[in-house]
Amino acid sequence: MKREIELLAPAGSYEALVAAVQNGADAIYMGGTEFSARAYASNFSRERIKEAVEYAHIRGVKIYFAVNTLVKDSEINKLLEYINFLYNTDVDAVIVQDLGALKLIKELYPDFEIHCSTQMTLHNSYGVKLLKELGAKRVVLARELGLEEIDVIKRNTGVELEVFVHGALCVSYSGQCLMSSFIGGRSGNRGKCAQPCRKKYELIDSNNQHGKGRPFYYMSMRDLNTLENISALINSGVTSFKIEGRMKKPQYVAAIVGAYRKAIDLYLSTGKELKDKEIQKKIAQVFNRKFTKGYLFSERNKQVINIDKPNNSGIYLGKVSAFNKALGRFTISLEDDIVHGDGIEVWGKSETGGTVNKIYKNNRLTHEAKKGETVEIELKDIICTGDEVYKTLDSQLIKELEKTYEKDIENKKNSIKGNIKIEIGKPIELTLYDDLKNTVNLKSTSTVEKAQKVALTEEKLLTNLKKLNNTPFELVSMDIDLKPECAVPLSVINELRRDAVNSLIELRRNRNNRKQQKLKDVDSEPIYKKINTNKEFKLSVKVEDLDQLKVVLQKKVDRIYFSDIDNISKALDLCRNSNCEIYLKTPNIIKDNEFKLYDSVIKNNQLDGVLVGDLGMLKYLKENYSSLNIVTDMTLNIFNSFTVKEFSELKVSGVTLSQELDLKSISNLNVDTDIEIECIVYGKTSVMTTEYCPAINENVCDKKCNSCKEPKHKLNWSLRDEKDYSFPISRDALGRTVIYNSHPIFMGDKIENFLNSKVNVLRLDITNESPDSILSIMEIYNNRRYFDVEQLGFKYTRGHYFKDIE
């Protein structure tokens, strides 16, 4: 099989990069200390970036650099300075999330390859086609797609597709998670996720009744592992197999990259899958949260979640059969080998762990113990009989992995070919050329003499030319033109070979042969600063059903966003009778096979427009309903003027700004256009959209997500955290789970803060408010009068309007 597959490895540090390269990665993705979605990885300084690019390029490995955070106007020129540095450093491609950043990079550096991050939530053909038109060469698909869905996208777009094949999974669609941001001010979209999904929650119903009766890790996903399914992935049309792990240690990177290298090579050469229990055990030992094949292979709900433990599960060692409190030792019959220096964790009534310092066998101290033996292990903590013990670190395995990327180790060998001509009275001519079409031609400084005794043989010549030892090359062929009776000192051959190899290395450093570019600034200063105290705002309201709509229409409202497709015709009639615009609100996740459902709704109803939640629906409407008004929803993460301008060029009529944007940044938007700028000023923010539903863990779940017996949009379940905040759970129009913030945003007494901005539409998002609450809230926003917020009768948040996110 000749298909080329890229194995893409993570590197959060220089040592991890070396580990990845030496264990067989074809490309590395990494980030710096700026604009990276893994801000808490070690990451790379600028000097280290230069070293990393050279190291990788010499060995034929590409570098993709993550600048995949949302960017404010005030940061744009800093971003472009960074892009300029990366371009001149010969980084092969940049990975972006921000659509405005994509627009600028393509305009200013047209030959710089752009990959669209998984943070862009790309999950259908239309969205991928749009980004292809905007200049992206590759997209990183959402981790919630199955192989059949990926195949459809490949056939419909022809774009390079990158798919995660191993490592940690986010419970929310990437780019759609605001939970960390709203709980602690640390945004995943800005690279600083605090991982609230790895914390314990209680699942409670609308009557405040407990689900399982105590907290569990209801949102902690298992780790993805597709090692034994390489054939299906290759045949799906995926270009790049991506391993997650920029926060992981070099030993982890070495183990996982090495395993997938073997699996890919085995299948491409023999057509067979890698079925190796020892390799599976190794990758489980270095890190796992239990494994899943994920949505790639249609695993669902309980198969993708691990509600019992959010961190490394390690390898099961057995159960505690006795505990000697006086000596601080527990007894265990081993299910796996253990040695001094291994790490263990004990789970059950106790949750403890540490390094194995003392092992006793028959009451005698020993350095190691084997599977099947009964031993005592010293651990100074309270341990209970029946507790489960796991080996979370195998010290011998770690040493074994470290040897694969030791200093001066060169496992990554690139094939080179050459020819050599040796003739009496002339200099030796040596040519070397590599797989990247680099060619080196060298001549010796001295001429060849006639042999007095022993002439040089082809065998001896070839043996010395192949002595590439600790270089990143192996000589696979050499055409030799050796004339008779030639005498050449081997030192001359060796020197010529070394010089040729060094010259080849120099050529490989600058893989892309770019001309150095000068820094290009752009105008990102605000042009609209004058306060307009007489400014009029449109008022839009998003509702979930007809009952809410009827209540809302009792008050003044300019536009309705309506999401219940089963009742859209009735909603349209109600709005027409109230002289109010009605827009269909589409979900922020809509897969290829779901567009036909919305096609019939749009075709059969005279809508004023559509509120689109993803790029795919935007592209679909432009292709099929070009005259329809389109407003983009907050899920498209519009964060700066350049993104607004991009959407303006795509002919949308309005945009909803990100709910992570603060008022200062909103006021500084440099937008000179007739496009409507909308902000959500009331409502429970959608902080997650997931394929997984926590209610699967309760008897109420019927496991039929698209026809769930829990009514759509009804917030009957909540996740309650350790601080007693409850996050309501609902479903969107297509049955996917939506988790909302515990408190609604409320800005009814702060509308004057939007006066000195380009914002001209204020939006209220209604979820589960009572009719009286809806009327009261609308009265506040309609009248814009002073009132005492202490009299509101509910807890609220200002979101990020007055609090900048990290």
Automatic annotation (TrEMBL):
**A GO MF term:** peptidase activity
| The UniProt record lists the keyword Hydrolase | yes
Q: Where in the numbering of this chain does the Peptidase U32 collagenase domain appear?
A: 389-508
Q: Which GO biological process entries does UniProt record here?
A: proteolysis
Keyword list (alphabetical) reads: Hydrolase, Protease
Instruction: Establish whether keyword Transferase is in the entry.
Output: no
For this entry, the protein name equals: Putative protease
Q: Which organism is it from?
A: Serpentinicella alkaliphila
